[in-house]
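Researcher: Go.
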Amino acid sequence: MNDLIACCGLDCASCDAYIATINNDDALRSQTAEKWATLYNAPNINAEMINCTGCRMEGVKIGHCSECDIRNCVHAKGFSTCGECSVLDDCQIVAKVHQFAPAAKLNLKSA
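Model: Structure:
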């Protein structure tokens, strides 16, 4: 599986935080922080927090990614992604992501 597919199936390569990090793009960091603060009703998000090298890659993670219940579950089970888990279709933990990003589930099933 592509290493830039997150544990939950999101595509890190298309994530603005990942793109800003690999390109060291402070303008994109600021835009992303503003957008996410509004989208997720999280006014404490700021540009300095927008740094991530990808869920399954070595390096820095955004705060919520480093503390992610999905990522922690995958690691505890010794998997690379949720796609390896037999309860994927019924899992309430990853369902929170797949509800808003159905393509993430497709990424896991197509691997």
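Model: The mean pLDDT is 91.
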